[in-house]
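User: I'm writing a short report section on ligand binding and want a predicted complex to refer to. Could you take this sequence and adenosine-5'-triphosphate and write out the structure as C-alpha cells? A short remark afterwards would be nice.
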Amino acid sequence: MDSTPRKRKGAPPACSAARSLQDLASRKRFCRESDPHPPRPDGGPRRTTPAAVMTAPAASGASASAVPGRGHKRKVGCIDSATRLGRRKRLETEYELGDEIGHGKFGRVRACRARVPGGGEEEELACKALPKGGGDTAHREVEVMQHLSGHPGVVTLKAVFEDADSFYLVMELCSGGRLLDEVARDGRLSERHAANVVRELMAVLKYCHEMGVVHRDIKPENVLLTKDGRLKLADFGLAVRISDGQKLNGVAGSPAYVAPEILLGSYSQKVDIWAAGVLLHVLLMGTLPFQGNSAEAVFDAIKTVELDFHSGQWASVSLLARDLMSQMLNRDASSRFSADEVLRHPWVLFYTECPLKAEFSHLWSTNKAATPMVHLDRVSLDCESSASESSSGNSEEQDECVVVDALTAAITQVRISEPKRSRLCSPVNKLLPPSRDAILT
Ligand SMILES: Nc1ncnc2c1ncn2[C@@H]1O[C@H](COP(=O)(O)OP(=O)(O)OP(=O)(O)O)[C@@H](O)[C@H]1O
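Assistant: Sure. The C-alpha cells for the complex follow:
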C-alpha cells in the first residue's frame, strides 16, 4: 500500500451507515443537474421535451461534434426497434400496474405485470414513470439502457410508453431490493461478500466503459439485486456516452460519491471507479469516507481529507482490501485503477476465483508464513457459496482476514498491482465547453 493516509483534524465524526446515507439522500437534491430549460427572459414558454420518444439527444456533457468511438455500436440517438414503444393506453392494455416499490428524485417506480393472453405465466416487471419537462433525462436514460442492453449486470429495458405528462419505462424487476438496504441492515459486509459485490459491479462497469458510457451516479442506492442475489446496475439518468480520450466537464452525481476531478471540471470514466471506491468503503466500514454538513463541506473533504487506513475499524480489515481501496480512491485519475485492474486485484481474485486456490497454495508452500493450509481450503470452499451471503465481524471472517493478510506476503513475490500508467502516454484529450450538467456554482 503506498499511501499513508491521515484524517484531517476537525473532520465531522463518522456516523452510522443508515444515518449518513440517509443524510446523503437528502443532500442529493443539491447535486442533480439544474433545470436545462429555464424560463425564457421574455416570459415565453419553456422548451419542453417533444411529445413522442423519437430521438434521444446527444449525451449531455459530450460534444455534439464528437467522433463516435468504440461505444457507438448502435445507431446513436435512436430508440432501438427492439424496445417497444407506445402510448400510455397500450401500457395499460398490456401491463397491470401494481404498488409503488421505489422512488427517486426523478422517477416513481411501480411493480408491473405483463398481461398474458390465455392466462400464461405473468412476468414480474417494474415500471418507472419519469415526468416530462425534465429536459433530456428520460431520453438519455432510455438511449443508454438500450445501448447497454444484453449485459446481465444492466437492468433490461422492455418497453417505453408515454402520455402527455410522463414517460414510462418498463423494465425487469429487481425484487431483491437495493444494495443500500443490505448495508443498512447488516451494518458492514464481510470481505468475501464485499469482494463479490465489487467483482459484479466492476464487471458491469468494465462493460459500460468499453461501450463508451460513464454512469456518473454509482452508489449503493443504484445497485439493485435480483431475487437470487445477482447485482444489476440501475438509474442511468445521469449516464453519458463519450468517445475515446474525450473529457466531460459537467458537475454531476451525488455529493459523497463525486470524484475530485469532477470538482476540477475535467473527467472521464475513472469517476465511476472513485465512486465505487466510496461504495466499497461503505460496504466494509458502514460509513461514508468523505463527510460534511453541506455539499460544499463534503466536496472540501473529497479534495483534502487523507483517509487513515491504519487505525480504528480498519485494523480488522485485510491489508489487501485496504490496498484496493487506496487504489480506487487515488486522487490522481490517471493512476487510479481501471475496472479491469480492480477485477485483477488479488483481494477480488482471492474471494471470487476458486481456481486461484491452487496457485496460492503453491505460493503458500514456498512461503515461510505460518497460517495453516486448512484455512485456504476453507476459503476455497467459501467462494463457492452465494454471492449474497453476508456476515460482519464474526470470528470466521476475522480468520479469513488473517489468511488474506498472510497471502499478501506470499503474493508480493508475484505482484499486487499493475504498473501505473505513464502520464506521458495519456491520450490528448479534448476539453469540452461547459455543459448544462453544471449544477453547482
Ligand atoms: N427495475 C427495478 N426493480 C425494482 N426496483 C426498482 C427498479 N428500478 C428502480 N427501482 C426502485 O426505485 C428507486 C428509484 O429508481 P431510480 O433510482 O431509477 O429513480 P431516479 O428518480 O432516477 O432516482 P435518483 O433520485 O437516484 O435519480 C430505486 O432506488 C429502487 O428502489
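A remark for your report: The pocket of adenosine-5'-triphosphate is lined by residues 101-107, 109, 126, 128, 155, 171-174, 178, 221-222, 224, 234-235, 237 (CB under 6 Å). The chain has a mean pLDDT of 71.
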